[in-house]
Amino acid sequence: MTTGHGQTPTDDGVPGGAAAPPGVSRRGMLSGALLAGLGGAVVGAAGGGSAAWAMATSDAATVDDTDTVDLDRSYPYYGTGHQGGIETQPQRHTVFMTFTLADTATKSSLQTLLARWSAAAAVLQQGNSVGAVQPSNGVAPPGDTGEAAGLSPASLTVTIGLGPTLFDDRFGLAPHKPAAFSALPTLNGDTLDPKFTGGDLSVQACADDPQVCYHAVRNLARLGRSVVTPFWAVLGFGRASAGPGQQTPRNLLGFKDGTRNIQTDQQYSEFVWVQNGDQPWMEGGTYQVVRKIRMLLETWDTDRVGNQQQIIGRHKEEGSPLSGAHEMDTPNFAAKTSTGDPVIDPVSHVALAARENNGGMMIRRRSYNYTDGLDANGELNAGLLFIAYQNDPQHFVQLQNRLGAHDLLNEYIRHVGSAIFAVPPAPEKGHYLAQQLFTAS
Ligand code: HEM
User: Fold this and answer.
1) Best CA proximity match to 273, nearest among 289, 262, 261, 284
2) What is the mean pLDDT of the chain?
3) Distance in Å, CA 312 to ligand 1 centroid
4) Which of 213, 259, 331, 393 is most buried by a 10 A CB count?
5) Which of the listed residues 365, 387, 398, 402 should we mutate to test ligand 1's pocket, taking the one with most ligand atoms within 8 A of CB?
6) How far is the CA of 363 from the centre of ligand 1 (A)?
7) Atom 28, ligand 1: which residue's CA is nearest?
8) Which residue windows does the record flag with biased composition (Polar residues) (predicted)?
9) C-alpha of residue 105 to centroid of ligand 1, in Å
10) Which three-class secondary structure string do you get for the chain?
11) How many whole angstroms from 353 Cα to the centroid of ligand 1?
């Protein structure tokens, strides 16, 4: 392996190259450039948006100093207990791709694939290339596709998941399938397109530079070419979730998303990491649920803000619950108006989803906005790439069945894609992802 993005030596034993370019740590600069691009697109397509633009720019101006992008930051891949990209502070971009295994794939080719992907992920997360960008032998194809040469690691994390289909009769893995793990049943509100549904494997690459995400997924796909074929993919931007010290970002409905999320170690331990499960290879792992949710943005954009707030159960600009004044105020679902009506509509999105109304249960949401441009009718084809991590897939099933049946938001969204994956813990150095699954007797 040779180095490419210009990083110093790493604990993965990859030799270093020239010093990396200095990182950018001024959020105003990055978010300003992003908003300029998006603001222009919105004004052009919908003929409006100046109020949203004013709100977004004033928001960026008040950003906390701790919420910065450091493109030089890198995360180790091996020995971290859990895979990255779950508890990791949400980076600004993702490329999420699912794969199907070739008919000729065997248990051993699957093992080799996971070993190669693990080694590549470790190298990529340090900002290095997976092979020579320009081999000295001019007739050989490059070992790395090259588009990230010279770029910093940008906090890249590569999260790899195994689909329920790996436990069918093809690879002899059925005895090691966790009892809790199977394809998602049909859920309330499903309008799924088979083109965006299922997959044998998933790769979620998150980073603060979209080119770094794309490079990572593209090179994993290339490394696996004889064994896997890319199935469906989504490019996500504008992280719709926040970690400690990060400002809550906004989804494409214009609402803050990620305010009430899993944050503490205790919550991760209780709701995210598999502990004392029935399969040792999944100890410290979790289950990834991915839903591609299209938003009917043109319809939403004609709705009164009061109605939008009733649907979500929160104020639009501040993000506070309708029962409070500040974003972090705990919603009071018992609060009544002077006429005796609930302040937060019982079928608003947050009332249906909140832990107070679901027996205390929580999920770790780590979503991204996405756009596929325009649809055949010239309408904005965009929405939320909803990604949730939980130690019991039934938690998601329970929530989505409730939301799919009653949520006021349903008028404005369509669940068009769906998949679930088992996400094993991170391998130790010298090992590869899910190795224990293959060596279990
Ligand atoms: C396009 C689809 C969706 C949009 C636009 C959306 C938007 C939001 C917004 C604006 C909030 C309030 C801020 C916050 O606390 O994060 C929220 C909260 C939440 N959402 Fe969603 N959401 C969507 C889909 C889903 C789905 C599919 C689920 C799970 C099945 C879900 C579960 C939750 C939960 C658990 C909360 C926290 C509620 C609380 O504790 O107050 N959301 N969502």
Assistant:
1) 284
2) 87
3) 8
4) 213
5) 365
6) 10
7) 400
8) 1-10
9) 38
10) CCCCCCCCCCCCCCCCCCCCCCCCCCHHHHHHHHHHHHHHHHHHHHCCCHHHHHHHHHHHHCCCCCCCCCCCCCCCCCCCCCCCCCCCCCCCEEEEEEEEECCCCCHHHHHHHHHHHHHHHHHHHCCCCCCCCCCCCCCCCCCCCCCCCCCCCCCCEEEEEECHHHHCCCCCCHHHCCCCCCCCCCCCCECCCHHHECCCEEEEEEECCHHHHHHHHHHHHHHCCCCEEEEEEEEEEEEECCCCCCCCCECCCCCECCCCCCCCHHHHHHHCCCCCCCCHHHCCCEEEEEEEEEECHHHHCCCCHHHHHHHHCECCCCCCECCCCCCCCCCCCCCECCCCCECCCCCCHHHHHCHHHCCCCCCEECEEEEEEEECCCCCEEEEEEEEEEECCHHHHHHHHHHHHHHCHHHHHEEEEEEEEEEECCCCCCCCCCCHHHHHCC
11) 7
pLDDT value of residue 441: 61
- Nearest-CA neighbor of 387 among 83, 167, 85, 80? 85
Number of the ligand 1 atom closest to the C-alpha atom of 313 = 12
191, 253, 260, best to mutate for ligand 1 pocket (most atoms within 8 Å of CB): 260
Q: Which atom of ligand 1 is nearest to the CA of 363?
A: 35
CA of 270 to the centre of ligand 1 (A): 20
Q: What is the pLDDT of residue 246?
A: 86
- CA-CA-CA-CA dihedral for 308, 312, 316, 322, to nearest 10: 110
Q: Whose CA is nearest to atom 34 of ligand 1?
A: 353
pLDDT given at position 66: 54
* Alpha carbon of 25 to ligand 1 centroid (Å): 29
Atom of ligand 1 nearest to the CA of 383: 1
CB atoms within 10 A of CB 64: 10
Give the model's pLDDT for residue 196.
Answer: 98
| Residue 99, CA distances (Å) to 161, 225, 238, 419 in order | 10, 10, 24, 11
pLDDT digits (tens, 9 = 90+) for 295-321: 999 999 999 999 999 999 999 999 999
Residues facing residue 321 across a β-bridge: 314
Angle at the Cα of 293 from the Cα atoms of 291 and 299, rounded to 5 degrees: 170
Contact yes or no for 367/249 (Cβ under 8 A): no
